[in-house]
Amino acid sequence: MSASVHDVIVIGGGINGVGIARDCALRGIKTLLVEKHDFAKGASGNNTGMIHGGIRYMRYDVGTTRSSCRDSGYIQRIAGHLLHRVPFLFPVLKNDLGGSFLLEGAEIFFEAYDRFQPLKNGKKHTRLSKEEALFLEPGLSDQILGAVTLDEWAIDSYRLVVENAVDAQLAGATVRNYCEFTRFLRTRTHRIAGIELFDHVTQRTEHHEAQWVINATGAWGAELSTQTQTPYRLRPSKGVHIVYPHRISNYGLIMRAIDGRQMFFLPHDHATWIGTTDDDYYGNLDSLPILEDEIRYLIESARSIFPSIDQYTPDHAYAGVRPTLYEWGRNEDELSREHLIIDHDNGVLSIAGGKLASYRELSEEVTNLLAQRLDIKTPCETHTRPLPGFHPRPSTEEVCLCENISKEQLEYSITHELVQHLSDLRGRCHLGQGACGGAHCARRAAQIFAEAKGLSGQSQREELERFHQLCSLERKPALIANNRAREELRHMLS
Hints:
Blueprint: E1 2-11, H1 15-26, E2 31-35, H2 62-78, E3 83-93, H3 100-113, E4 127-129, H4 130-136, E5 144-155, H5 157-170, E6 174-177, E7 179-186, E8 192-199, E9 204-215, H6 221-225, E10 237-244, E11 252-256, E12 262-268, E13 271-275, E14 279-280, H7 292-305, E15 316-322, E16 339-343, E17 348-353, H8 359-374, E18 398-400, E19 405-406, H9 407-416, H10 425-428, H11 442-453, H12 457-475, H13 483-493
């Protein structure tokens, strides 16, 4: 049983956890970050992939909109290589409640949102006639009255998490994935003085001491807080997205779902994402089911504004659980996306709530508090220091044609980006996320992985099987009816 001593231990390898670890390390705070799965396993890697203000939050949570827009501007400065601008259309249908009044109201609403656009280098809205909207996107329903434009930013959220983790390590933090928190270590006065963890790679139990422990485990946070003297509650909300392996439109669409909720139709690189659902979830956070009803709900909702959606076949689906703050008597999509920092008064701070778009600001707030208590004067620099990323070299071999992944890119990730399993490359490089689902590239990638890690032939086969199992978990829910037989055949041939 090994032991080490740190100033701060951060539990949770999502965006808030890695953001806090990075900020702490850059200020000279001796930091340990642990994550029981791979990084971005939860909502941080399973979201709509946008650094945006959240126009719907303006109705009841303007502070979240403002902070998200402000932090979006900083994230563009430090992670511009992970971002791309997405022009959105907000079409209004004739049969929408309010009809032409809704179109007028939408323009007034977006005029208010325009005030925040300079914070994130966004463009102001424009109102379009029916003819202008259909000229830009002929796939829209001919039942629209018109549309309003909106400017937002999309991001590779998985790589945002990984690059924060890598930079934390470069700054001196100890960063470990596949290490699971099991219990707190306590002094005789019951103050928490560290953690016990189980390393799933070495199969060993370890003890690590620290002055402060940060619970940044997202939707898992409420359960972990039961080991403190002041547990808190969350109202977890499950969100499902479906992914089409090609661009259906060059424009993002803001649309109303069947039940009136807001949904997105989003171009991401070469793919199209549709989502999200928003339902209370109290099940197993480590194994999220994706129901056929949820897939049909998303497709049916998209059909009203984009009738030709049935011509396309979704490739896979994914789900995440938002760590939304607990409230009684409100619909899921009305819950606040604000964050809370909970001081348990015994050496533990918990992070509840929050959004991807404002992770850096949240991390700075937490680290400021820690620095004050540790008497550290070093200022924050996470808003100016660029994140590290892959620097392309001449390619000697193209491993995945769907995602344009080279042998050199895989080798870089395996060597520099805390990769423990072949399946970790699904997020690092999007391996197996394209149309082939790994059928054309996984075997060669497994060879490259095994060579870099010095694995035996048996271990290589086990890694390959693990990779295909995880790919199938995402692909099967999206393949409705007879398409499932095709997926089984693809899996057999790979």
